[in-house]
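User:
I would dearly like some help making sense of a protein record. Take your time, and here it is.
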Amino acid sequence: MKDCKAALCQNWITNDKEQTVKSAVEQVRQATAEGADFVALPEMFVCPYTNRSMRESSEPLYGPTADALSSCAAQNGIYLIGGSFPEETESGLYNTSMVFDPSGNHIATHRKAHLFDVDVKDKISYRESDTFLPGNEVCVVDTDFGRIGVGICFDIRFPEYFRKLVLSGCEIVFVPSSFGNATGEAHWVLSMRMRAVDNQCYMLGIQPAPNPELPYQAYGHTVATDPWGVVLGELNIAPGILYAELFASRVQQVRDEFPLLKARRPELYV
């Protein structure tokens, strides 16, 4: 990888999809003005995180949201990890992230592979599979700054996914998410640090700001961690942008001094 700067946009989601997208695009412009090379948005940055809202806000892969993201990337000359939106296909809906290059070209797609079906007593009960189908591929993207990976929210719970990204050459991983309060305080930052330590890579987790007027309360706390698991920065619950400087030498240093990836014994893991 090459040294670069990432900007993680913690946006404000409302029931007005058009205005929510416009607000997110404005955050991308602000991030570009601060010299960001990569800008990332949260999971479901276009609508409230409810099954009904996601169905109502669904659109084809190359629909209005993709057009807005493509134009935004091109106008600002940045790599844009477009959070995620509800993608409508002939087979059903997917929770989909699109990645665009500085010319606005669509260069990668990640459909959330692990769906959030949980029942935590007295805290949260939710079935994402009532709305979405699971994606079946990992997302590895070649950029001018090196190879990056993308996962979405609940994907973070599955170490195998992120190990596959890193074994494919990724040294920076973006995770658009919408952790809620029920699990966010316990596991959000911890999960990002765990995957960074496991894989000796930069982990960048992007959350929406919680809106008390919506039924689902996001946790916020967008966070960036380095390859040693050090928290480089963390937002609170207000809308904002988190900036992180990412250094190739830091990845190499951690991997040289503590060669976890070289010490693997995959013949034992099958």
In short: The CA atoms of residues 69 and 245 lie 23 Å apart.
